[in-house]
Write a structure and sequence with these properties.
Layout: H1 3-18, H2 27-57, H3 65-83, H4 87-108, H5 117-139, E1 155-161, E2 164-169, H6 170-191, H7 194-204, H8 206-211, H9 216-238, H10 248-263, H11 268-288, H12 291-308
Antiparallel strand pairs: 1-2
């Protein structure tokens, strides 16, 4: 045996001896961790839902999606600090403001770039830089804080196990409730209204829809604005979890993309499936190892999934 092989074996033996013992699985602790994962699922669903509209329906690569989340959070901060408004009361205003900004962006920038993926990507990336710069000029880079309502603070104890308790925070329940509510509203608008039928018609065959009298330009603007409005609501809901800052949207952009792409870009149920898969996997692995390692493992798993199933977990069956 040469010296190199001996040193390698010695190093492995040393690492095995120095490694900490395997972490014992506490049923109560892991149950609480998985319940905390429900909050992660809600955040992923909230941030990914608007992106699934602009990307999954319109095929627009919107790298400024995180900045619309940031605009929603700043809208809530302004209304709460200046008018003492409850966080829930600011949700409609965040939706309207970000939707109006989204409509303006669609009319002035995105409309000229349909079918040109690279140009759209670069334009929305530049837009994200501009929006961050404008917010820094107005509010500076200092962190802002949003208060959660008193009636959704604290924890709900589900079960007592000796001195331990299985519990989940009311705010996490509020997040998942809002995410499922918006998912249901979006599904109804897409599949139960005339506007939704027009949106799906434009998505499948733009020229045929135009020949049948559909105002495709109006449909594009309304759809993009709605996706941006959903991002604004996401910013409001998660504003009290973390400090509000110009770059906060970038923290959620990658996770939102992973959620949409992993679940499938053609169906809303794919966004829900992607959020559950990524959120709960991250929570479980973080309990067994640690959070940074969990994020790396989940990201690698999503990459493998996209490699062998690029359409995601769910996709619409299309005729050839």
């Amino acid at each position: 045996m040469n010296v190199l092989s001996f040193n390698a074996i010695s190093a492995l033996v040393y690492l095995a001896q120095a490694s900490p013992p395997a972490k014992a699985i506490d049923p109560v602790a892991i149950t609480n961790q998985l319940l905390n994962g429900v909050g992660i699922v809600g955040i992923l669903l909230l941030t990914g839902l608007g992106l699934s509209i602009t990307f999954g329906v319109m095929r627009i690569i919107n790298l400024a999606h995180g900045e619309f989340i940031m605009l929603g959070a700043y809208t809530t901060f302004i209304l709460q600090s200046n008018f003492k408004m409850d966080l829930l009361m600011t949700i409609p205003f965040s939706f309207l403001f970000t939707a109006l900004v989204g409509a303006l962006v669609e009319v002035t920038i995105v409309r000229r770039l349909y079918g040109r993926a690279i140009e759209t990507l670069l334009a929305t990336w530049g837009l994200s830089i501009v929006l961050q710069g404008v917010i820094k000029l107005i509010f500076t880079a200092q962190l802002k804080y949003v208060k959660a309502p008193s009636y959704i603070r604290g924890n709900w104890t589900l079960l007592k196990v000796g001195e331990q308790a299985i519990e989940i925070s009311y705010y996490r329940l509020f997040i998942i409730f809002m995410a499922l509510l918006l998912l249901g509203i979006t599904a109804y608008l897409l599949y139960g209204t005339n506007l939704g039928r027009e949106v799906r018609a434009v998505t499948q065959n733009r020229e045929m829809a135009k020949c049948l009298g559909v105002n495709t330009s109006l449909v594009d603007m309304v759809t993009f604005a709605y996706g941006c409005g959903l991002a604004g609501i996401a910013g409001t809901v998660i504003a009290s979890l973390k400090s509000v800052a110009p770059g906060m949207g970038q923290d959620y952009l990658v996770d939102a993309w992973m959620t949409v792409v992993a679940g499938g870009v053609d169906k809303l149920v794919g966004v829900l499936a992607g959020a559950v898969l990524i959120g709960e996997s991250n929570a479980a692995i973080a309990y067994l190892i640690n959070d940074p390692t969990a994020r790396v493992i989940v990201l690698a798993a999503v990459i493998v999934l996209i490699r062998y199933r690029p359409e995601g977990l769910f996709t619409v069956q299309k005729r050839g």
